[in-house]
Specification:
The structure is a homodimer of 301-residue chains. The first copy, chain A, is α/β, with parallel strands linked by helices and 301 residues long. The first copy, chain A, has 2 domains: 138 residues, 2-keto-3-deoxy-galactonokinase, substrate binding domain (Nucleotidyltransferase, domain 5), CATH 3.30.420.300; 113 residues, Nucleotidyltransferase, domain 5. Chain A contains 9 helices and 15 strands. Chain A has a 6-stranded mixed beta sheet, with helices on both faces. Chain A has a 6-stranded mixed beta sheet with strand order 6-13-12-11-14-15, sandwiched between helices. Chain A is globular and about 65 Å long. Chains A and B meet through strand 10, strand 13, helix 4, helix 6 and helix 7 of A and strand 10, strand 13, helix 4, helix 6 and helix 7 of B.
Chain lengths: 301, 301
């Protein structure tokens, strides 16, 4: 990436989540010129302070950008301004059309809405992931498939003909954190231990058993009690159990194209877990966010 | 119950768990003369301090009892003295034979071992519940059936011909506490709200869906977000989801006799959840512990 802060560029792309704020300046052709990340998620922004935080973090870039486009929790009720959810099935055009301009902003800022859906009688929502999904479609050329975004609340979105038909969220990252830090397992689990592939895949395989996560989590305790699972391998085994429980619930079928989008470490684990289920996948990182925001910015004016 | 502290009686029965200490003085015929409970679980006992705490709590009774029999976590490695697990299948006689006398005690104290088993390639353990199970067999006359002990780590034990064949633990109570107090659900959940039967059974029914607890827990969040589940009903719904996930994993079949043993409030919820699954059950409380310890005391010498 070349630093060329003196040259104007068309897009300042912002992904503003609950716990982090990331931005990139992006050229007309979609090239990411530079990116930055800060621990200034919306929970760390005082009421009425969004524009000030944006300028503090990206003021220099903002002056030179034609557009500023924001995705993520900044568009939630607790964020900068609420951008109401776009209901599924939803394509790129519906999402672009429902962007919300921030009134009274010093320079124009548009916020991308999240998606909502109703599946098997349950509502579901995402904010920020929709941009990554549409970005992944751009990058992979896939218009049909499963787009999986691992995280605190993982998302499994089903796309057909370039439209998100529906999706399901799983409280996987949050439950892993609770079990590893606050449950009886925390007493023996070593959070500093390196990732252990064998223990992880053992956990994924165990999670296929119908007795369920509540039983298997206790089983992890019993395994350590009997010296059959080392404290240094417990974190990886538990990660396999929880991600495995998510996969068991999401039940992807072999043959469906699966695209994993997220951090390298996390998508690598999911790819491995999917392998145990006999499902192939491909992986994307932050480039999906920037590709999605860039594509949306082309319809901005 | 009549208080008759001046009359000698044969058994001081003690159930010493992780977070509580309960005791009863029991007549030769098994009648519970009096009982007491204290928040002095083994985690609140300093090293080497078990006899002092016992005397502090039950010293008056101890002087008059012929025997003192202790079940629960007091027999664990972190407890008073380790009483090694009795492996399943195990009947009443094996359990009685494996009691461990505390060496050097001021007056004789015997500790009942827990049970261990191996099921579907996973080890499992219980301490304290085995006494309740054998007590429940005495009280109900059932030698075959499922004995279910709801709690922090619920137990489902399968008995045949008066012997525990095997069992499975579920981290249900602990996961409910983590989700209701520390997850994103804690932000809206009202822990003071009264139990709501309709929300609870709705959660139990939802838990039968194959997508699993990780999805349904997020679904609870989405339901409140869309105003379709009131904050005052969230705790009951979540309780239904988690207990329902346990039932889904334990998969009891209609026709098997099911005995629920535990607190009135908790066994009532499980009975209701089992009803949703079309499974009838009967309920027992603390009397199962005292009946079990009394029966075991008869073989003490």
């Amino acid at each position: 990436m070349t630093s060329c802060a003196a040259t104007p560029f068309p897009l300042l792309a912002i992904d503003w989540g609950t716990s982090s704020l990331r931005g990139a300046r992006i050229a007309a052709d979609g090239q990411v010129l530079e990116q930055r990340g800060l621990a200034r998620g919306i929970l760390q922004v005082p009421a009425g302070g969004f524009e000030a935080v944006l300028d503090e973090a990206f003021g220099d870039w903002r002056e030179q950008a034609t557009h500023c486009l924001v995705s993520g929790m900044a568009g939630s009720r607790q964020g900068w301004i609420e951008a109401p959810y776009c209901p599924c099935p939803a394509g790129f055009d519906e999402l672009a059309a429902r962007r919300v301009w921030v009134p009274g902003a010093r320079r124009p800022v548009a916020i991308v809405p999240g998606l909502s859906c109703e599946q098997d009688g349950l509502p579901d929502v995402m904010r920020g992931e929709e941009v990554q999904i549409f970005g992944a479609m751009q990058l992979t050329g896939l218009a049909d498939g499963l787009f999986v975004l691992p995280g605190t609340h993982s998302k499994w979105a089903r796309a057909e003909a370039g439209r998100v038909q529906g999706f399901r969220s799983f409280m996987t990252g949050e439950v892993y954190a609770l079990l590893s830090q606050h449950s009886i397992l925390a007493r023996t689990l070593n959070p500093e231990a390196p990732f252990d592939d064998a223990a992880f895949t053992q956990g994924v395989a165990r999670a296929r058993d119908a007795a369920g996560l509540l039983h298997h989590a206790f089983g992890a305790r019993a395994l350590t009690l009997f010296g059959r699972l080392d404290a240094d391998r417990l974190a990886s085994y538990l990660s396999g159990l929880v991600i495995g429980a998510e996969l068991h619930g999401a039940a992807p079928t072999a043959g469906t194209p699966v695209v994993l989008i997220g951090s390298d470490a996390l998508t690598a684990r999911y790819a491995r877990a999917l392998e145990v289920h006999g499902v192939a996948s491909r992986r994307l990182g932050a480039e999906a966010t920037w590709a999605g925001l860039h594509a949306l910015s082309l319809s901005l004016d």
